[in-house]
Amino acid sequence: MTSEFAVEMRDVVKRFVTPEGHEIAAVDHVTMQIKNGEFFSMLGSSGCGKTTSLRMIAGFEWPSEGEVFIEGRPMGHTPPFQRKVNTVFQSYALFQHMTVYQNVAFGLEMEGADKSEIDKRVKRALEMVQLTGMERRRPRQLSGGQQQRVAVARALVKTPDVLLLDEPLGALDLKLRKEMQLELKALQQQLGITFIYVTHDQEEALTMSDRIAVMSKGRVQQLATPVEIYERPVNKFVADFIGESNFFEGRIKSISKDEAVAHIPALNTELKGLPMSRDFVKGEDVAISVRPEKIRIVENKTKGDGLFMAKVLTSVYIGSDTHVYLDLEGIRLKIMEQNRISRLDPSSFYSKDQVVTLMFMPENTLILKKD
Amino acid sequence: MLQRFRENKSMQGTFLALPTTLWLFVLLIIPLFLTLVVSFGQRSPDGDVIFSFGLHNYIRLFGYSTDCPGGQTSCFDPLYVNILWRSLTLAFNTTVCVILLAYPLAYFIARAHPKRRNIFLFMVLIPLWTNFVIRVYAWMMLLRKEGAINIVLGWFANLLGLDFTPLEMLYTPGAVLVGMVYEFLPFMILPIYTSLEKIDNSLYEAAADLGANAFKTLLRVTLPLSMPGVVAGTILVFIPVMGTFIVSDILGGRQVILVGNLIQRQFLDARDPTFGSAASLILMVMTLIVTYFYTRKFGFGEEIVAA
Lengths: 371, 307
Fold this sequence. Notes:
The complex is a heterodimer. By secondary structure, chain A is an alpha+beta fold. Chain A folds into 2 domains: 227 residues, Rossmann fold; 134 residues, CATH 2.40.50.100. Chain A is 23% helix and 36% strand. Chain A is built from 8 helices and 20 strands. A 6-stranded mixed sheet of chain A has the order 6-7-8-3-9-10, sandwiched between helices. In chain A, helix 2 packs parallel to helix 4 and helix 3 packs across helix 4. The longest helix of chain A is centred in the middle third of the chain and has 18 residues. By secondary structure, chain B is mostly helical. Chain B has a single domain, classed as MetI-like (MetI-like fold), CATH 1.10.3720.10. Chain B has 14 helices and 4 strands. In chain B, strands 1-2 form a two-stranded antiparallel ribbon. In chain B, a hairpin with a 5-residue loop joins strand 1 and strand 2. Chain B is globular, with a radius of gyration of 25 Å. The mean pLDDT of chain B is 90. The chains are: A alpha+beta, B mainly alpha.
C-alpha cells in the first residue's frame, strides 16, 4: 500500500459520440478519492456516469481527460489485465463452457501459477463464498445467487487491491439481495480490501457503504457518509434522490453561519432552517426540504412560529408506520408516523378532511441550493 | 369432428407433419430404396437394368477387376478406391481451408459496429445471387493459361525483366480446391458469425479483467464458445463437397475425378445405372460415417448456444 488512496479519479471526463453524432460527456469532471479498505458506493440512476466511472477504473474505458490513479500510480492506457483490480460484472459474465472450478481457476492460470497453488487458492475462494462442493457444476446449473458467488470468488481469487462491483445484485430477488448485501459487506470487512460498488438502489448503498458518491448527469453531486447524505444533502437533487422529502420553494430573507430564514410565498410565511451551502446570498431562490418522518403532528390547535394548519387527504396504514398525506395551502405533504402504540380504534387514526397542526423544527428544515 | 380436432394435440401434430412426411416418403425413401435395388442389378448390353441380386458392383468399386494385364482372370484395380479417397481428402482439405478463411472474417464481422455488420453480411451473400456454374466458370477465366492471373503475373515479370512461362493452374487438384473453397465459404462464415455474435462483450472484458491477453482470450474463451458455429459450418460444407461434381468437372477436367463425377458418368455416359447406384450408396455411407464420428465428438453445434 503505497498510497493513502486505493483509487483516485482526478478531474476525469469521458466523452462518447451518440449514434446521432452528438458528443456527450458521460462522466463530466469527476474527482473522487477512495480510501484503502473502504466500502465505497457510486449511486445514481441509469445514465448518471457511475458505470462508466467504474469501467475507467477497471480499464475497459480510458478517460478523455483527467487521470485515474490506482494505489497512487497514474493508469493512463494500462490494459485491464495489468491493473490490480478485478470486476464482478452485472450479468456475472461467467464462462458457460467451463465448470465453477475452471471459472475461478482461470485468472490464476493466466498468472501462470502452478497447479497445486491454483488448487489451494480456488478451494479457499470457493469456501469463502460458501460454494464448496459445487466445483464441477456448470454455471447454468446454478441459481442466480450461486452464480453471483462464483463471480465474486473468480474476482477475489486474484487477491486484487480493489474489487469493483457493477450492480452485482440487480438480478436477484429482494430477499436474496438483502442476504447478499450483508454477506458482501461481511466479506469486505473480513478481507479488508477496497470495494467500489455501483448501484441505483439507495437503500443498498446506505446499508453497505462507508461512503457514497451520489451521481447525476455525469457529475458527483455529493460524496459523504450515508448519514451525512441523508441528513445533510447538499442540494435538491440529493435530497430528492435519497429517501423522501417534502419540498417548498422559497427565497432567502436572512442568513447567518448556521441558520437561514426563507420566505415561502405559497404559505405566505417564513421558515427557519439549516443552510446546506456556504455561499447563499440574500434574495436567492432556494428549495426547502423536510423529511416526512421529521414533521410532527401536534395537539396544539393554534397557529404560531413553525406551526401550520393542514387538512388530511388520506391516511395509509402500512403496519410499522402510518403515512399521512396532507394539504397545506395547496401544497401536498407526506408525513410518516411510527405506530409505536398498538391500537385498533378507528378514531385514533387520522380521517379525511380532519384538520391537524403541523410542527416544523428549524433543525429538521434544510435550506438547499436549487441544483 | 372439428371439435375433436381442436382438442386433440397429437392429431394436430400428425396433420401438420403430413405434407413433409409424404414429401420425404415419395421423394427420398422410395428413390433411396430403388437405388439400393438397382445397385444389386446388372447392366444389359443396351443399357437397361436387369434386376438380380449380386454384389458385383460393390466388389468392382473396391478394386476387383477382370480386365487385367498379363492374362490374369482377376486383379486389384485401385481406380475407384482412389476416386473415393480423393473425394474424402478433398472434402477434408476444403473444410479446413474454409474454416481458416471464414473464422477471421466472421470474427471481424461479429466485432464490427452493429450498423456495419449487416452490410458485411450482405457482401458475403452477394456471390450467391449468381448461378453456381457461372461462378465456377469465372474461376476458369482466372486460372487458365491465357487467364487473368497469368496476364497479371506476366505483366509483372515483364516489368522486372524476367522470363515468364504461363502457369498451368487449370485442370489441377489445386484449381478444384480453390473452386470448392470459394463456393462453400459463405456456408461457413454465416454459422460461425452467428455463434460469435452471441458471445456477450462482458465475457471478453471478464477475460481481460482476469489477466488474459488477446491471444489467450481467443484460445480459452472465443474459440470454445464459437465451436458450435464451426461444427455447424463443417457439416454444411463437408457433406456437399463430398457430392458435387460441377467444380471438379469444370476446373479439374479429366485430371481430377471425384465420386460425384463417377456417378454422373455412370448414369449419363457409361449408361450403367447399377454401378452408378452402388457408387451413390457408397458415397452416402462414407459421408454418414464421417459425420457420425464428427458429431459424436463435437455435437451438432447447439449445446452451448442453447444455454
